[in-house]
Amino acid sequence: MKIFALSGLGADQRVFQFLYLEHELIPIDWMDPWKEESLKDYAARLIALHNFNEIKEFAILGVSFGGLLAMEISKIVHPKSTILISSVETRNDLPYL
Prior knowledge:
The model has no long low-confidence stretch (mean pLDDT 85). By secondary structure, this protein is an alpha/beta fold. It contains two helices and four strands; from the N terminus they run ββαβαβ. Helix 1 packs across helix 2 (65-77). Helix 2 links the parallel strand 3 (58-63) and strand 4 (81-85). Strands 2-1-3-4 form a four-stranded parallel sheet, with helices on one face.
């Protein structure tokens, strides 16, 4: 199974360098967002770029803000698993500060 991994903002794929899994880990680089683009629309562009719809079985792993994006992607393409590390499921779970 492939696991697509999204780092947090201000980080890159090096955050996964010591993560050893029995599955293929595919780090995804952040793209520049379009002006006033929603997170949902950004997720849709990322899905199209990486052809998630053509893969039978995959998971998405998100760290920090990458977890919020992983949740948006999950709503569209329904991976086998969505893994959040130091993240939240929705913006409502964010602390006030």
